[in-house]
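Readers of this paper often ask what the protein records in our data store actually look like. The remainder of this section carries one protein's record, kept here as part of the documentation.

:::
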Amino acid sequence: MTGWSGPTTKIAKNANRIRLARFGRKHQPFYNIVVIPRYKARDRLPIEVLGTYNPIPVPKIPGSQEKSTKEIELNMQRTLYWLGVGAEPSDRVSWLLKKAGILPEEWPKAPVTKTVAPKPVVSEPKTVVEEHVSSIRER
């Protein structure tokens, strides 16, 4: 008897993603920017932690006119390494990397599609020849 291995799924050669893993309390999120395999859950053990992101604005000095800032800490060398080996950032991480100046604003580039001109019809339409078929069978 042969063993059934179940349905097979193809996984891309480099199936790593750069994404956010949530930490912190309820209504006070704090994120780690991590490299993790594409098929693993959000908060599983990552391959590497690249940095942190605090989306809650940290107030400056009370009464000052300066705006509050959101904190992003990022290891630039390791981030560039993972992007270089093909790790794909999630939508939010790509937005953060654009703000940090790592990714260009037009990233991802639109795929180049070739426009194919329709081929002209070279053959003439075939003529239909009708044959008389009797509905009575001869013996």
